[in-house]
Amino acid sequence: MKSICILYATREGQTQRIAEHVAAELRVRGFTVAVTNVRDHAAQSRLNTCTAAILAASVHAGRHEPEMLQFVKEHRGKLECLPTAFLSVTLSEALVVSTRRGILTRCNPSWSAVAAARDADARAL
User: Fold this and answer.
1) Beta strand 32-37 with 104-106: parallel, antiparallel or unpaired?
2) pLDDT digits (tens, 9 = 90+) for 6-52
3) Nearest to residue 62, comparing CAs of 95, 91, 22?
4) For the CA atoms of the chain, what is the radius of gyration?
5) Which CATH class is domain 3-92?
6) Where do the CATH 3.40.50.360 domains begin and end in the chain?
7) CA-based end-to-end distance of the chain
8) Paired sense of beta strands 63-64 and 52-60, if any
9) Is the pTM for the entire model greater than 0.85?
10) Contact assessment for residue 82 and residue 52, using Cβ atoms and an 8 Å cutoff
């Protein structure tokens, strides 16, 4: 069975709740999912045993949680070898749900261009 690790960094707990919600939805679809705070020593071992990773971090004053930034820097090589998604959790930026494929994109033209390029790459596969 394919296993997904959801690794999160949170300041106030909202990102953990979102990570748990994503995990519940994936479990309903038959995936094995482990949710771990990147501050926990288990985060590295979870990353080493999963077949895909979802990283989730809150954003405060325009910056992601420092422990997530450190985790990504330390494990970049492994993350680049896995299917990986990154969720940014913020209340300060408006989000728009794309009606195509249900993808969240920021209301920022440059971010939308990145999402469009990613979608084009995915269609090419």
Assistant:
1) unpaired
2) 999 998 889 999 999 999 999 999 999 999 999 988 888 888 889 99
3) 91
4) 15
5) alpha beta
6) 3-92
7) 23
8) antiparallel
9) no
10) yes
**Could you write out the three-class secondary structure of the chain?**
CCEEEEEEECCCCHHHHHHHHHHHHHHHCCCEEEEEECCCCHHHHHHHHCCEEEEEEEEECCEECHHHHHHHHHCHHHHHCCCEEEEEECCCCCEEECCCCCCEEECCHHHHHHHHHHHHHHHHC
| Pairwise CA distance, residues 5 & 18, whole Å | 14
C-alpha angle with apex 56: 104 to 109, nearest 5 degrees?
35
Neighbouring residues of 68: CB distance < 8 A, sequence distance ≥ 6: 7, 8, 9, 38, 55, 57
Rounded Cα distance, 44 and 74, in Å: 10
